[in-house]
Amino acid sequence: MTRHSAAQLVARARRELADATVPNRFVDLLESGELPRERLVWLAAEESLIVRSDRRSFALLAARFPEPPAGEFFLGLAQGEGRALELLGDFVGALGESEKNLSTYEPKPFAQAYPAYLAQRAAFGTASEVALAMLANLEEWGAYCSRTALAVQAHHGFSEKDVAFFTFFAQTPPGFEELALDVIAYGLESGDDPEGTVRAARLLHAYEIAFWDVLAADLP
């Protein structure tokens, strides 16, 4: 399968994800100033666990698929998660919390479904599955991060440094899409199932929706 065919598969996945997108109540409440501050602590605590898990998942994928283009792609993602973890510390501090405090937080099961599924695919899935899932979901995730950064600054007085975790994810790294397409094309040419690859993107998207839903659960 050519790179052009891989791009067509990505376009199909993006259309399917767009059709499945629902309003993000957490971000909507945050933008309106109605979100309890406690839920921002939930967000920080859940993300602390997610980023650590995702970094290990990407490192595992780099070990499973060390040859280019996959090895470079997944190593870059693992390094990005490491940088994100550093930036998250500023957000945690601005909330008046600490990593020690967050260690006592009890995770919400469905908030952790996303990293659990990514870890499953890292162990048992294909490189093209994960590359497509990350690429197809990137725009929506980045938009939510951008909205979160702006809303937290507007309603809680946080600085740009305090919300750098979110602005980091709001920006697509240079060359990310091109490299992801190379990984997808290489995997499909090697026999990866196109339908299974798109299915992984749909499932990851559903688990991301579940993450945001949990953070806004039971709010009026």
| Helical/strand content category | mainly alpha
Strand content: under 5%
Spatial extent as radius of gyration? 17 Å
Tally of alpha and pi helices: 10
Helix residue percentage? over 70%
Number of strands: 0
Low-confidence segments: none
Oligomer: single chain
Task: Characterise the protein shown here.
The chain has a single domain, classed as Up-down Bundle (Heme Oxygenase, Chain A), CATH 1.20.910.10. By secondary structure, the protein is mainly α. The protein is built from 10 helices and no strands. The chain starts with a helix and ends in a 5-residue tail after the last helix. Helix 1 packs across helix 9. The chain has helices spanning 3-20, 25-32, 37-64, 70-94, 99-102, 113-124, 127-156, 164-170, 176-189, 194-215. The mean pLDDT is 97.
Short structural description:
By secondary structure, the chain is an all-alpha fold. It contains ten helices and no strands.
Features:
0% strand, TENA/THI-4/PQQC family protein, mainly alpha, Heme Oxygenase, Chain A, 220 residues, 76% helix, globular
SSE order and pairing:
Blueprint: H1 3-20, H2 25-32, H3 37-64, H4 70-94, H5 99-102, H6 113-124, H7 127-156, H8 164-170, H9 176-189, H10 194-215
Helix pairs in contact: 1-7, 1-9, 1-10, 2-7, 3-4, 3-6, 4-8, 6-10, 7-8, 7-9, 7-10
